[in-house]
Design a protein that fits this description.
single chain; Polyamine Oxidase, Chain A, domain 2; globular; binds flavin-adenine dinucleotide
Length: 434
């Protein structure tokens, strides 16, 4: 095969890679090549049509915080947008309470409320705000006290991240963990909450096509996209890559949206950088999508801190858009962390169904699901342990010096969301094409 030559090689056609290519096209910069290993584009922002349902890779909701992001998404989706007010809950102690747990204790058993409130008061009396660089355990204890930590912060986050709270950093917490005042914690213990806390009180979701609709809108003008073409090797010094089904590609600049740890395995790196790459840890998640021939609650999603539920979150996709499931049906996405996925698939799914019945999302003796789709996300959460920041810094600096620029949630090994990834990839592509 003849060597392909391009100015900008983009690896990975998730929302980041698509955004980079889309914006290069819009500026008339046609000399790029976008390669994607899968048979479809979208990455984790893709969707799968099955049995009349539209399933996503778990809930993928557009939380937009900037005018820039809002304008871009509205231009892309046009009228294909549903706007929703969040209905998020926590299920624990056989009660469903509002989100966030720390400001919505109302509805829990009285002894649990007392433990949480007194713990929070004691923590604030100590008046020792979290120290910079504190581990998640110390960060959460100093802000919320031992009761809220014992009943939510610790078990929920250990389930989600797959590491104990003392091994997790706190540098991911803002803007994801709301920090109510003590007055708000106390008020939320005695009255049902009315204040909308957190980064996502309302959100957008495509009316048709699931999350993939946004990727489809980005992909519309992207001419140089090659599917089924995996980046297999990178020679950082020669600025060449080997791509499955395409052969050798000579580039001037490389935009990498593939996971940083994967990328590090494709290039020859000095030993110290290899050690950094080896230290990067990710949490794997199974998304179990289920369709049912019955209706369910009108909630959007529920968090589950307790160990006897194998999942940490269950969402109801059919409440995001009437087109996500056939009329009269409902669809769920259940997020199961890797540590609860070991063993027999049938037994895992049975305990998921039991859990949905116990918390009331399914009626007693529910009908059998009429659609099941398991989606495994190998790299779902980049774990914020003490190795992460120095490793990302060292690796991205070295790669950048050699014309390989990382972006996206996994390219930068971070806890980001779609808006941030869309805009960062656009800005990077436009900067590199100047
Ligand atoms: C469980 C979960 C729920 C989430 N919910 C939300 C939400 O509600 N709202 C929100 O805004 N964000 C959410 N996110 C975050 C969102 O998924 C990311 O921000 C976004 O998908 C990142 O896009 P990306 O293009 O950077 O990465 P990806 O989507 O991972 O895309 C990378 C692409 O690279 C391809 N690739 C990998 N290796 C190679 C290779 N060697 N060669 C070629 N191609 C390769 C992959 O196939 C993939 O298509 C969630 C994430 C998770 C895990």
């Amino acid at each position: 095969m003849e060597t392909i030559k391009t100015d900008i090689l983009i690896a990975g056609a998730g929302i980041s890679g698509l955004s980079a290519a889309h914006h290069l096209e819009k500026r008339g910069r046609k000399n790029y090549l976008l390669v994607e290993k899968a048979a479809d584009y979208g990455g984790l922002c893709g969707s799968v049509q099955k049995d009349g349902y539209t399933f996503d890779w778990s809930g993928h909701l557009l939380h937009l915080h900037t005018n820039d992001g809002m304008k871009l998404v509205k231009n892309l989706l046009g009228g294909n947008i549903n706007r929703l007010e969040r209905s998020a809950w926590i299920y624990s102690h056989q009660a469903c309470t509002g989100y966030p747990f720390q400001a919505s204790l109302y509805g829990l058993p009285k002894d649990i409320i007392t433990e949480c409130v007194t713990g929070a008061v004691r923590a604030r009396e100590n008046n020792s705000p979290p120290k910079p660089g504190a581990c998640f355990r110390d960060w959460a204890l100093s802000l919320f006290g031992d009761g809220i930590c014992r009943h939510f912060m610790f078990p929920y986050n250990e389930k989600l991240w797959g590491v104990p709270p003392q091994e997790l950093g706190s540098d991911w917490c803002a803007p994801f963990v709301p920090r109510p005042s003590l007055d708000e914690i106390i008020r939320g213990a005695y009255w049902p909450g009315d204040k909308k806390f957190g980064y996502n009180p309302s959100f957008l979701y495509p009316l048709k096509g699931g999350c993939r609709a946004l990727c489809a809108a980005l992909a519309e003008n992207v001419k140089n996209l090659k599917l089924g073409c995996e980046l297999e090797k990178v020679d950082l010094h020669a600025k060449t890559a080997v791509v499955k089904n395409l052969g050798k590609v000579k580039y001037k600049k490389l935009i990498a949206t593939v996971p940083l740890k994967t990328l590090a395995g494709l290039a020859a790196l000095p030993a110290e950088l290899r050690r950094h790459a080896d230290a990067l840890k990710a949490q794997k998640v199974r998304v179990l999508n289920l369709g049912f021939p019955c209706k369910t609650a009108d909630k959007h999603w529920i968090y589950f801190p307790e160990a006897d539920f194998p999942f940490y979150r269950a969402g109801i996709a059919s409440n995001f858009s009437p087109n996500a499931a056939p009329a009269g049906h409902s669809s769920f996405y259940i997020e199961i962390p890797a540590q609860n996925c070991a063993g027999n698939e049938a037994a895992i799914e049975k305990s998921v169904l039991k859990g949905l019945e116990r918390c009331g999302l399914l009626p007693k003796n529910p009908p059998k699901p009429d659609s099941v789709l398991r989606l495994d996300i190998e790299t779902a959460y980049a774990v914020y342990n003490s190795d992460r920041a120095p490793a990302v810094q060292a690796l991205t600096a070295y790669l950048g010096k050699h014309g390989c620029h990382c972006t996206g949630r996994y390219g930068l090994w971070r806890y980001s969301f779609m808006e941030q990834d869309l805009l960062d990839a656009r800005d990077l592509a436009l900067k590199l094409s100047r």
